[in-house]
Design goal:
Blueprint: H1 4-9, E1 14-16, E2 24-30, H2 34-45, E3 50-54, H3 82-98, H4 109-114, H5 119-133, E4 136-139, E5 143-149, E6 152-158, E7 163-171, H6 177-181, E8 186-188, H7 193-196, E9 210-211, E10 225-228, E11 249-251, E12 257-258, H8 272-283, E13 295-298, E14 304-307, H9 330-353, H10 359-366, E15 369-371, E16 391-393, H11 401-405, E17 413-417, E18 421-423, E19 427-432, E20 435-439, E21 442-444, E22 449-452, E23 466-467, H12 476-479, H13 485-505, H14 514-523
Parallel strand pairs: 2-3, 2-7, 3-4, 7-23, 10-19
Antiparallel strand pairs: 1-4, 5-6, 6-7, 8-16, 9-20, 11-14, 11-15, 12-15, 13-14, 17-22, 18-21, 19-20
Helix pairs in contact: 2-5, 2-13, 9-10
């Protein structure tokens, strides 16, 4: 696997289809996420000379790093329009042409064709679309500094020393690094419930404590336990976002496998909580399966996607490990990245080898391997850590829980979202030496809601030529409906068109003609309004009870 320092510090300079990129552009997009790809392609299609900067060596964000679904399982499919729909339909045609379809438990077979895919196919599709649109792509360097003239960004300097200028900028990164360096105000972590009047905001304890030893022989909290519950108060603000994890792609068929590598720094004590719980289950003669600990989703062509399991005693989500990521510098992020990788590989090694683990679980874990056809230049491990949430801009309008549940109509709509309010846990906190409670989970019914242009626009007094479709202006609770790769493509589509307009006319982002933008978006298949006869509530979709 490549060095994390190369990943985040930009020590590798690699460029696609250009050796010395010109310094001046109409639009520069930072972050080759799905939002950044959509923005870049639509800016270029609208006539803007566009550069896409991706700090790693691969575009696509989590769509090409292990998340192989559009998340339509918990969305209203009719809200997925514009570039997102184009992207999924293009992959659907690929699978139809190649006769490589699996059977999925959906009544609507359109979902099987369009919304489930492979990381390698997603990357191939993205790269084809970028090339067709004439977007230049620069890999391997991160934004270092931002130079402004008054309210206008004039140029950015990358970590490899390159200075690039443009008339308009789009920050499509998960972290909002360009936005932050441009002096735009933002939030990190979770707001208190009182700040925006949000019922689901702030610290949230699960209703049911879990029985497991939480302290060692000296009374110190075990690894993975962040604090004592008595030191936290329900509804108060908290500095950390939801947990992060890697979305590994594995295979059950031995002919499709390569071995899962051992961690560089294995420490069995990191999993002491799990070991104690497993011993308790064995003493009580309660059976345990691997599926009780890790979610394993079947995808295409013998591939399975590993994910954090919400109800597990411990899981791939590195609870507490994400606390410092949003505002960390690149060197510190590299350390956090390596810590997550060691935690993940260590957990899988523990499940396959530790004597505290039941024999049937060890056997099942040993039967899995990384899929040999994915991430072939990266040790078959995903390129990116799943950063579900980091910074969030405080822009011209802040989307709140009310905006995604009850006050869902916006006159300056640029797209639709409909996913459940879905926040993974943030941390485990000890209730007693023998019990803990998970904290931070939100699961609320999804409703179709309009995404306002103002939510991707900084305040006029902070920056004039920047749009932020990634770390957009949402509270933590509302952000849980935006943080999907499919929804980010929807927002990125609009940001790209708006950026091209800003560059072409030399106008502030806040003065873009939104009705004209809406008409252009609709002509390109974007859904910006509620549709007659279409459901506005995701009640037909399966999901656990709200909490």
């Amino acid at each position: 696997m490549r060095s994390a320092f190369a990943l985040f510090l930009g020590l590798i300079t690699f460029s696609a289809e250009l050796t010395a990129a010109p310094a001046n552009y109409d639009v520069i997009t930072y972050g080759g996420t799905p939002a950044g790809i959509a923005a870049s392609i639509h800016a270029a299609r609208d006539g803007a000379r566009t550069l896409l900067i991706e700090p790693t060596k691969h575009v696509g964000g989590l769509s090409t790093s292990g998340i192989n679904t559009a998340e339509s399982e918990h969305m209203l499919a009719w809200t997925i329009g514009g570039f997102a729909d184009e992207f999924y339909r293009r992959m659907g045609r690929y699978y139809e042409q190649n006769k490589e379809l699996l059977t999925y438990p959906h009544k609507d077979k359109r979902l099987d064709t369009l919304y489930f895919f492979e990381s390698s196919v997603a990357e191939k599709t993205y790269l084809e679309m970028l090339k067709e649109a004439g977007v230049e792509v620069r890999y391997g360097a991160s934004v270092d500094t931002v130079r402004k003239d008054g309210l206008k960004i004039v140029a950015i300097t990358l970590t490899d020393g390159t200075e690039l200028s443009a008339k308009a900028f789009v920050d499509a990164s998960y972290e909002g690094d360009l936005m932050a360096r441009a002096g735009v105000r933002y939030a990190v972590g979770r707001e208190a419930g009182s700040e925006f009047g949000e019922e689901a905001a702030g610290i949230r304890f699960d209703k049911t404590p879990r029985k497991a030893r939480t302290v060692d022989a000296q009374g110190n909290l075990l690894p993975g336990i962040s604090a004592w519950a008595k030191d936290l108060k329900e509804g108060e603000a908290h500095r950390a976002p939801m947990n992060y994890n890697f979305r590994l792609t594995v295979a059950k068929d031995h002919q499709l496998q390569v071995p899962i590598p051992s961690p560089k720094n294995y420490d069995a004590s990191r999993y002491a909580l799990l070991a104690g719980w497993l011993r308790d289950q064995a003493a009580q003669k309660k059976p345990v399966k691997l599926a009780d600990l890790i979610d394993l989703y079947e995808r295409r062509n013998g591939k399975f996607e590993l994910n954090n399991k919400q109800s597990a005693i411990i899981s791939l989500g590195h609870f507490g490990g994400q606390f410092d990521w949003p505002d960390a510098g690149y060197a510190q992020r590299a350390q956090i990245y390596e810590d997550h990788l060691n935690y993940t590989l260590g957990l899988l090694y523990f499940l396959a080898n530790d004597p505290a683990v039941p024999a049937n679980v060890r056997s099942e874990m040993k039967s899995l391997g990384l899929h040999k056809d994915e991430f072939t230049d990266n040790g078959h491990l995903p390129y990116q850590l799943y950063v579900r949430e980091a910074r969030r801009m405080r822009g011209a309008y802040v989307m709140r829980q009310q905006d995604v549940q009850t006050e869902r109509r916006k006159p300056d709509s640029i797209g639709m979202s409909s996913h459940f309010i879905d926040c993974h846990h943030v941390q485990r906190v000890a209730v007693s030496p023998d019990a803990f409670v998970n904290e931070g989970r939100i699961w609320r019914m999804g409703y179709a809601n309009q995404i306002p242009y103002r939510a991707i626009t900084p305040k006029a007094e902070e920056c004039a030529n920047l749009l932020v479709p990634g770390a957009a202006s949402y509270t933590h609770v509302a952000f849980c409906t935006l943080r999907l790769e499919s929804t980010w493509m929807i927002v990125g589509h609009a940001a790209g068109l708006a950026a091209a307009e800003i560059a072409r006319k030399g106008i502030p982002a806040q003065t873009v003609d939104v009705p004209a933008l809406q008409k252009k978006l609709q002509a390109q298949g974007q859904v910006v309004d509620f549709l007659p006869g279409k459901p506005e509530k995701c009640e037909h979709l399966n999901g656990p009870p709200e909490f």
